[in-house]
Amino acid sequence: RKEVEQDPGPFNVPEGATVAFNCTYSNSASQSFFWYRQDCRKEPKLLMSVYSSGNEDGRFTAQLNRASQYISLLIRDSKLSDSATYLCVVNRPGGSYIPTFGRGTSLIVHP
Amino acid sequence: DAGVTQSPTHLIKTRGQQVTLRCSPKSGHDTVCWYQQALGQGPQFIFQYYEEEERQRGNFPDRFSGHQFPNYSSELNVNALLLGDSALYLCASSSGEEQPQHFGDGTRLSIL
């Protein structure tokens, strides 16, 4: 089992749709969690941190389920500009923490 | 406030050569991580530097080495280049090992 797994997609949705991505992790001792967005041939950019209580930033909601070892990202009212690859990052223990990326989930929002 | 800067942007090398990539962290950041990203994959952790020491290392051979300078900038060195080393090399900085990272634009390395 990979340390961090994501469905690569692509998720193809119309504008205005709600879409959700999950990311599972294997190490139960993992601590901090993040979602990044990466546009084609660009660097990853931090979208949001994921807190135990769940957190929301505009149309984006992130949640953490420690019991089932996954994090989720919900995007409401999808925009064309949301088309990108969404990467989850899990800081797994290893001496100090090691940032471990999933392979990313591709989202395509169409008119 | 300058973000993370990397140089060069693109680089073409041949098998067996050596390469040095450079990174200046975001102002106020003291921790630097290097990643290798192949097409269609997520970034793979190479190593992390803090206080001029390598603190963590991913599953990369000894051909990959690095350095962090007193001003927190960092270098990634790769010796005996292989075709499989062709990738986007990303540098990310943070203010601590559990803090969100900020990425540079990356160096796209092509091995011929």
Structural notes for this entry:
The complex is a heterodimer of chains A (111) and B (112). Chain A has strands at 4-6, 11-14, 19-25, 33-38, 45-50, 55-57, 60-65, 70-75, 84-94, 96-101, 105-110. Chain A is mainly β. In chain A, strand 9 and strand 10 form a beta hairpin. The radius of gyration of chain A is 14 Å and the shape is globular. The model of chain A has no long low-confidence stretch (mean pLDDT 93). With 112 residues, chain B is mainly beta. Chain B has no helices and 11 strands. In chain B, the strands form 2 sheets. In chain B, strands 2, 4, 5, 6, 9, 10 and 11 form a 7-stranded mixed β-sheet that branches. A 4-stranded antiparallel β-sheet of chain B has the order 1-3-8-7, with no helix packed on it. In chain B, a hairpin with a 5-residue loop joins strand 7 and strand 8 (74-78). The interface between A and B is medium-sized, with 26 and 25 residues.
